[in-house]
Automatic annotation (TrEMBL):
Binding site for GTP: 29-36, 78, 134-137
UniProt name for this protein: ADP-ribosylation factor-like protein 6
Pfam family, one: Arf
Family indicated by similarity: Belongs to the small GTPase superfamily. Arf family.
Source organism per UniProt: Drosophila hydei
MF terms (GO), sorted A to Z: GTP binding; GTPase activity; metal ion binding
Length: 219
């Protein structure tokens, strides 16, 4: 009995000492939208460090604290090759950030197509969405009201979403972004280790229509 008691006490002690659970914030968008600069800003990098940020090739992770919450920022490359594997990071996402280059109207239709495909995935069906109309300091940048219309954002249903105008390079709109993320996360619980592994996707493979198309599983 004493050995059992000691074992239980040791287990409970390890649980008390274990770090607080971590939330996952996924940053997506086309290449050159400014995702890596945004991630650096959210990571409280200096102005000099932000100016030297290079585009993400595959994936960059930053482990941060937003007030008292532990957050893992996952900045995924927006290159076409990497977009084909975005879906592998959807399962444990708590917040989705989609970055738009407001100064490049010619790629808005491409951004809309990618955003639609992301939002159709059932693994993100209830994940809060933050759209960032980035590069507002650039000449010819479109206002968020126009981006809402061009991307058809008013049709989004079933999830909380918000759009902010920002400039990652200049640091404008970063505080609002952090506040929005914190307000969403403080009412959530991060996915447990059990839920991450024992899910339909883990057990049975891709279950979304979009994934079946990717893997040639459609009739």
């Amino acid at each position: 009995m004493s050995n059992l008691y000691k074992g239980v006490a040791t287990f409970l002690g390890k649980l008390r000492k274990s770090p607080k659970p971590e939330f996952n914030v996924l940053i997506l968008g086309l290449n050159n939208a400014g995702k890596s600069t945004l991630a650096a800003r959210l990571g409280m990098e200096t102005d000099d460090a932000v100016k030297q940020v290079t585009p993400t090739v595959d994936l960059t992770e930053r482990h941060l604290k937003f007030k008292k919450l532990r957050v893992c920022l996952r900045d995924l490359s927006g290159q076409w090759r990497m977009r084909q594997s975005w879906h592998t990071f959807y399962q444990d996402a708590n917040i989705l950030i989609f970055v738009i280059d407001s100064s490049d109207a010619s790629r808005l239709s491409e951004a809309r197509c990618e955003l639609c495909e992301v939002l159709l995935d059932e693994r993100l069906s209830h994940v809060p969405l933050l759209l960032l109309a980035n590069k507002q300091d650039a000449f010819g940048a479109l206002p968020s009201s126009m981006i809402i219309e061009l991307l058809g954002l008013k049709r989004i249903e079933g999830r909380p979403w918000k759009i902010y105008e920002c400039s990652s390079l200049a640091g404008v709109g970063i505080d609002s972004t952090v506040d929005w993320i914190y307000e969403r996360l403080k009412h959530m619980k991060p996915a447990s280790l059990f839920s991450k592994f024992f899910t339909p996707y883990f057990l049975f493979g891709p279950t979304c229509l979009l994934d079946r198309r990717r893997h040639g599983m459609d009739d």
